Task: structure prediction
Amino acid sequence: MLTEVLIFVPSIARFRLDFLDARLKEAQIASLAQLAAPDMVSPELEAELLKNAEVYNVVLRRDQVRQLVLSSTIPSPIAATYDLREADTWDLIRDAFAVLWDPKDEVIRVIGAPVQEGGILIEVTMQSGPMRHAMVDYGARILVISALIALVTAMLLFIATQRLIVVPIRRVVRHMQAYAAAPEDGRSIIEPSARVVELLIAEEALQTMQTQMTNALRQRERLAQLGSAVAKIAHDLRNILTTAQLFADRIEGSADPAVARAAPKLVASITRAVNLCESTLAFGRAEEAPPRLTRFVLRGLLEDVVEGEGLGQSVSAVIDAPAVLTLRADVEQLHRVISNLVRNARQAIEATGGEGTIELAGGESDAEWWIRIGDTGPGLPPKAREHLFAAFTGSTRAGGTGLGLAIAAELVRGHGGALELVRSDDQGTVFVIRLPKDAGPGMGTSEESH
Result:
């Protein structure tokens, strides 16, 4: 509305001034014919000149002499006089709106300065009706144009508000809803990208809060698992240290040659105790960062895992993954998951004393990528399968803590996927890692967000 006023008010006042100036100029031109050849201007020609100028009479003041140059009968008394020489901006605006608000067609006198120094002043009488009609027509056009400008401005403002404010706020809301539904899914942690500074600060604060909350939830879950396993850890650790103490006493009190054979057992016992403590403490810290999703070739990762595990002569590896298959995940975290599964498979085969094969395969469907790790080992015992991914209860071998598979499953869940045991029998064991192709809840499907 302010824009309408700022456009319309001065425009209509300016139009009225231009209209009156045009009448004065046309009247001055008509009077020049009379002054140039007064004897040649007939009454009929004089009437035609006044009609073309749309005035009733023309008065010129030249050399201090006021002269009625052209004249005709005035149909009614003069209702108002306007001197354009002395009018300021507010006078012009006031007079313009007075004409618009008064529908009566009256005779008015207009005084102005002649052009080209054609005298001291020029004065005409005219009807106000034609001027009012022209002003109404011009005002309507101005209102339409200004309304269109306001409409376009409103549309641009609406689009800008949607893109800069509403869309980022909806994105934040989707992230909050997705995070509330699955706090452990690392993909639901927002990546700040707003272009408005205040919204960017809010997104960064939300990211910090989500990260801290996720770590706190993991910490609480792991501490709960630690609490339920304290008795078992204390018992196992006491037995290991008791064995180490017995061998240590024998070393101190005897010069028996068997000490040389007992020393390795002592070292192994102490090593197992240290490893158990370190694994327990590492699990309790819950410092896993959210996955940093990038594109990479799966086959190269599988080859790195096999090479890093250093498989012996009794265990071979077969990789069955297309050379061009790429997926989106955190390379380091996925390497840890696959390495843990391959290591478990190798240990299971080596425990039989025979030979075996580990197969690593990969593929994709419309909705997900999958990675299969299988072996020809003896299979998992039934008790281990019951709590396979639970810390301290899902160990697949004697002396194990069960932390490896628990951490691996947690890392895969952080990608929004799942680690599944497909089968485990006397023919071997097969695990499958499933990773979704969608970019994550609340984040759409564009990979550019990563």
